[in-house]
Design a protein that fits this description.
Elements lengths: L8 H11 L11 H4 L3 H4 L2 H14 L7 H17 L10 E4 L3 E2 L8 E2 L3 E6 L7 E5 L4 E4 L7 E2 L9 E6 L7 E6 L11 E8 L7 E3 L9 E6 L7 E5 L13 E5 L7 E4 L4 E6 L7 E5 L7 E5 L7 E2 L12 E6 L7 E7 L4 E7 L7 E3 L7 E2 L3 E2 L7 E5 L2 E8 L3 E4 L6 E2 L16 E6 L7 E5 L2 E5 L7 E2 L9 E6 L7 E5 L4 E4 L6 E5 L7 E2 L6 E5 L3 E5 L7 E5 L8 E3 L7 E4 L3 E4 L7 E4 L7 E6 L7 E5 L13 E4 L7 E2 L11 E6 L7 E5 L8 E4 L7 E2 L9 E6 L7 E5 L2 E5 L7 E2 L9 E9 L2 E8 L4 E6 L8 E2 L8 E3 L6 E8 L3 E8 L5 E10 L2 E8 L6 E9 L2 E9 L2
Parallel strand pairs: 2-37
Antiparallel strand pairs: 1-60, 2-3, 4-5, 5-6, 6-7, 8-9, 9-10, 10-11, 12-13, 13-14, 14-15, 16-17, 17-18, 18-19, 20-21, 21-22, 22-23, 24-25, 26-27, 27-28, 28-29, 30-31, 31-32, 32-33, 34-35, 35-36, 36-37, 38-39, 39-40, 40-41, 42-43, 43-44, 44-45, 46-47, 47-48, 48-49, 50-51, 51-52, 52-53, 54-55, ...
Length: 865
């Protein structure tokens, strides 16, 4: 937790440390959050952090980062050994590997947040980038094409990358991002990863430095390849201080590390370009150790040098750069957390003293009014050929050409939307061998300038690094999908993922197709809803519900004009979203974060609220069930056993009207998946051996409800025995948080898609043979072969039994009502055929359920007249 004077965090931290709360051993509510000023809480950058991290930490103030990291590592190791397991699925990427950004066409293709850049010392077109949670990528043509060189690493978040200038095939990547106070939607890293073959293979290094890291910078001495230095801070507001913050040094090419400056919030570090012994460092935190530091013995000892800089209590984040042609000239950009403002400073005597430059210039960003995000995005770069040409990145990009006065760079307009590249800048780097090449890492990925920042082009084609919140599939065309992303709109593809086009702005959230696929719904953060009635060509604004960060939106299964959404109340529209009416007022104490209704009996609904304010642990997490279409609700929270935890999803069973599920996240062993078969009166624990990691979504296979899928922080897990046992099932997907499932059946093809937090979208085709151990193939047909489907008057079920078992075959109508039992008897091993004469029933959708022994399979059928 940062020492933010405005937030009185010193006292808070002392209380938490004394109580052991930072290790999740006690809780008095979200004290950290409650101390944050309202103007900070109002920022979108805070709201996304709150959504992502509160659910993982709740009901505690901080995520148990050490325990969490250890569990992640052990589960990844276990998953690697299970990659050839029988129950595994194979996934393939659907992109996006770049989205056409609709808000500002001049920004071109955007990808996920990039945090670090390293450029080859003699080739300006060979570079490596580190992303927020998409891994490490390499290009040898300036970003026109990319090679994924870090997909298999245990961490995919990289705040720093360095190339050995004396041996460019050696690369160091520091995992984990840094950020002051508010944190980020991402993850602490797992040490340093080193490659000696240009990124083809990597070795993890944790010796001395530890295996929980948030890197601000990594640098290799230009004079001695054995000397490598790193700056570590903390990057996650909900993780508290990390024990390894400070300046670290390796004298043996990264094999072992020692801390040479024991401070908090080390953000930046730089070697003097001509003096072998001199190193500079930038330290934040807003406490007595903040400021600029000089070492004259290759980083072994340090001296604070703050003459002319603001008081240490005002220096919360610092970034620096040193002129390569005149190293006496050093620039610093400093974020003052008390005033929520960023200022620029310059030294002309090697950092011995400083003076503010461009005083009175707002170095944040303008979008109707000025605001500053120096806590989140802050960087600086000096032209290696000209010490008067300097860029500062914050919300916007600012430039000085005289070494003194900064002005925003806006080639396309008069505010941040007119900027040179996608807003929110994280790293700026000139190519050392040809400084005309200038690279930009930002929330929209990576950009390249060929003319020192006069112009720039997007270089994001091929980067599958987008961070998804939600995904939805077209009901009849497998090549059409839509999905909502962090910071990069909601986008749509009509060609199976080859091209994605932004359709509505903001942070993209819930989205869905109507069975009439010309009607599509999208949303942005906190419940801004949009609709297209022409297949996605254009969208119109519908309503703002002012709900949770990911406000739910669901559709009635048979009347597609009926939509439901929620904040603390339940809203319904019967006009396809033209208007929403409150049908149950203030039924939740906090924002409802998940809402579902039964496709079998649409009057049956379930919701779960969040626990954001959390004055008393457990009071705000509420689960309620309705049996009258959402008008009246019964609180079933206390019926669910186990420690109260944040619930990320509620799910209705696809074939049984009385069966529902809740998915808990956070850290509570054996406390993830719960199932009720009696509308919430009693609950069974289906968590089995699921790892104790945060979970984001739950999918129940409609053709065999014993098949369950959970999306968690390292991928997808599957159970084929109703939740008794679980296996890792993410072959083809990096170890990335899986956030949202979407399922669609088109003909006989069954597609399961998952949106990830950092590696875009993946897809697997579920085997139509999802059948039972006791039922096997007959003449290469399905386990239960329905001939034909759809059908007009009769259809035949064919199956084969491996052993003598009792068999029941039951037919249900679209309301889940039992209408006929075709078999209920002991049957012998061998082939079986059962004819269903359905002519007397009305046309429509029907469900069959076949039970053989203790196994079960369900499926849909269409009766036509």
């Amino acid at each position: 937790m940062k020492k933010f004077t405005l937030l009185t965090v010193i006292l808070v931290s002392m209380v938490l440390i004394a109580s052991g709360q930072t290790n999740n051993t006690a809780s008095t509510g979200n004290t950290y959050r409650n101390s944050i000023p309202e103007q900070v809480k109002a920022r979108k950058s805070f709201k996304r952090v709150e959504w992502f991290n509160t659910q993982r930490a709740w009901p505690y103030d901080t995520i148990p980062v050490i325990r969490y990291s250890g569990k992640m590592s052990s589960e990844i190791k276990k998953a690697k050994s299970e990659r050839s397991a029988q129950n595994e699925l194979t996934w393939s990427s659907l992109g996006p590997d770049g989205v056409v950004y609709s808000g500002v066409p001049e920004w071109g293709l955007v990808s996920g947040r990039s945090k670090s850049i390293a450029i080859h010392p003699s080739d300006p077109l060979t570079l490596y980038i580190g992303t927020a949670h998409g891994g490490i990528w390499k290009s040898t043509d300036g970003g026109d094409n990319w090679q994924d060189v870090g997909a298999g690493l245990e961490s995919l978040a990289f705040g720093a990358i360095a190339i050995d200038p004396n041996n460019p095939e050696t690369i160091y990547a520091g995992s984990g991002e840094v950020c002051f106070v508010l944190g980020y939607i991402g993850y602490d890293g797992k040490g340093i990863f080193k490659s000696t073959d240009g990124g083809n293979s990597w070795t993890q290094i944790t010796n001395g430095i530890g295996n929980v890291t948030s890197f601000g910078d990594l640098v290799v001495s230009p004079f001695n390849s054995n000397v490598v230095m790193g700056a570590l801070a903390s990057g996650n507001y909900y993780s508290g201080n990390l024990p390894n913050e400070g300046i670290w040094k390796s004298a043996d090419a990264g094999t072992t590390w020692v801390r040479t400056l024991d401070v908090q919030d080390a953000y930046d570090i730089a070697f003097h370009p001509t003096d072998v012994n001199k190193v500079f460092a930038a330290i934040g935190g807003g406490i007595s150790t903040s400021g600029f530091y000089i070492s004259s013995d290759q980083g072994d000892t340090w001296t604070q040098s703050n003459t002319g800089l603001p008081p240490t209590s005002s220096m919360h984040r610092l970034q620096i750069d040193v002129s390569q042609t005149n190293p006496d000239i050093i620039y610093a950009v400093i974020f003052n957390g008390n005033a929520m403002s960023t200022k620029a400073y310059k030294s002309v005597n090697g950092g011995q003293s400083w003076a503010q430059i461009s005083a009175g210039t707002n170095l944040g960003g303008y979008a109707g009014s000025w605001y500053d995000q120096g806590f989140y995005d802050l960087c600086i770069a000096i032209d290696p050929e000209n010490p008067n040409l300097v860029f500062i990145g914050n919300v916007e990009l600012h430039r000085t050409i005289n070494g003194s006065a900064f002005a925003p760079v806006r080639p396309y307009g008069n505010d941040l939307w007119g900027g040179l590249a996608h807003c929110d800048y994280h790293k700026l780097v000139f190519a050392p061998s040809d400084p005309d090449y200038f690279y930009i890492a930002c929330d929209g990925g990576i950009y390249r300038s060929p003319d020192k920042g006069i112009s720039a082009t997007s270089q994001n084609a091929g980067l599958t690094t987008l961070q998804f919140y939600r995904v939805a599939s077209h009901p009849t065309n497998p090549d059409i999908l839509i999905g909502g992303m962090q910071d990069n709109e909601t986008a749509m593809t009509t060609d199976g993922g080859q091209t994605w086009i932004g359709v509505t702005g903001g942070d993209g959230m819930e989205c869905l197709f109507s069975p009439n696929p010309d009607t599509i719904y999208t949303s942005s953060q906190n419940g801004w809803f949009y609709r297209s009635i022409n297949g996605g060509s254009t969208f119109s604004f519908l309503v703002n519900i002012n709900g949770s960060w990911t406000t739910p939106l669901i559709m009635h299964p048979t009347n597609h004009k009926i939509l439901y959404t929620a904040n603390k109340s339940i809203y319904r529209s019967t006009t396809g979203g033209n208007n929403f009416q409150v049908i149950a007022s203030l039924v939740a104490p906090e924002f409802i974060v998940s809402l579902a209704l039964s496709s079998v009996e649409p009057n049956n609904m379930i919701f779960a609220s969040g626990g954001t304010q959390n004055p008393v642990p457990g009071e705000q997490i509420v689960v309620k069930i309705s049996t009258d279409g959402g008008y009246n609700w019964t609180d079933v929270t206390s019926n669910i056993p186990g420690e109260p935890r944040w619930i990320t999803r509620v799910v209705c069973d696809p074939v049984d009207a009385g069966t529902m599920y809740v998915l808990r996240t956070g850290f509570s062993e054996g406390n993830k998946v719960w199932k009720t078969t009696d509308l919430g009166q009693t609950w069974a624990n289906l968590s089995g051996n699921l790892p104790n990691l945060p979970c984001s979504d739950l999918f129940i296979d409609p053709e065999n409800t014993n098949h369950l899928y959970v999306a968690n922080d390292i991928g997808v897990y599957r159970s084929t025995d109703g939740g008794t046992s679980w296996v890792y099932a993410s072959e083809g997907v990096p170890y990335v948080p899986a956030i949202d499932f979407d399922y669609v059946k088109i003909g006989t093809d069954r597609y399961l898609r998952v949106g990830t937090h950092g590696r875009s979208i993946y897809e697997t085709k579920l085997d139509p043979n999802v059948g039972l151990d006791d039922l096997t193939l007959v003449d290469n047909k399905l386990v239960v072969d329905i001939i034909p489907n759809p059908f007009a008057h009769t259809t035949t079920f064919k199956y084969y039994l491996k052993q003598d078992v009792p068999v029941t075959l039951t037919i249900f109508n679209s309301l889940g009502q039992k209408i006929e039992v075709l078999a209920n008897e002991q049957q012998q091993t061998g082939k079986h055929e059962i004819l269903w004469k359905a002519a007397r029933f009305p046309a429509g959708e029907y469900t069959y359920r076949i039970q053989a022994g203790n196994k079960e399979r369900t499926g849909k059928m269409i009766l036509m007249k």
